[in-house]
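Ticket #4471: structure export looks truncated?
Reporter: QA, pipeline team
Priority: medium

Steps to reproduce: submit the single chain below to the structure queue and open the exported record.
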Amino acid sequence: MQSWGLTDPGCVRKQNQDAYQIEKLDKNSLLCIVCDGMGGAKSGNIASTLAMDVFAQEVRRCWKPSLCQSDIDQILRGAVKLANFTVYDQAQQFVDFTGMGTTLVAVLIRGKKVTVVNVGDSRVYGINKNGIQQITRDHSLVQMMVERGELKPEQAKSYPGKNFITRAIGTEPIILCDLYHQDAEKGDYFLLCSDGLSNVLDDQEILFEVVHGVNKARCCERLLSIAKKRGAPDNVTSVLVLV
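Actual output as written to the record:
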């Protein structure tokens, strides 16, 4: 497996409240995480970094190469629970951290088995010779409106409430996460990103850069460059994995 990651404040915001991590758990297993913090200049970056660190540490603490899929699912759910408790606890204890929270999306690849966990509206895409698929479902107001038929998918990106998310790490004492399972073949890609990228580029543009870009190691840079040319109003983070 090969992996690359990049995060940038974008063109408007002075502070980067996104965070990402790529960690090899063993010779056949890789963990990738993207978090997008919220809660103002004093706490958004704290929430994303804290959630990412706690989540990664818990997965690493529990990890064994011999784990079955149900054990992996349980570990990921437990890591989300611990990350949520930690961020929520800090938000309750310190005035400067009141209201902070973060999205969290993670991909754990072991051999040809891929497990995705998601809270919020950061995304994971699966990309291969057949095209691009959004694996995760956004926990957002606009996604709910699209599913209810109140909003068309093409209207979602420009809808005034597009940044309102319905689930986040650290905003409630208990949080539910979504788990997804995928099979991977050699040559498949997985892209994790914050909404600073997915709000600016559409799926087909992402597909083109990943599949047709000459230098795969610079794909995240090319995606960032396009986002910046369009004003990049939010922080931009992407992690790309080639199986």
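Status: closed, not a bug. The export was complete when the record was re-opened. Leaving a note from the reviewer for reference: The longest strand covers residues 29-38.
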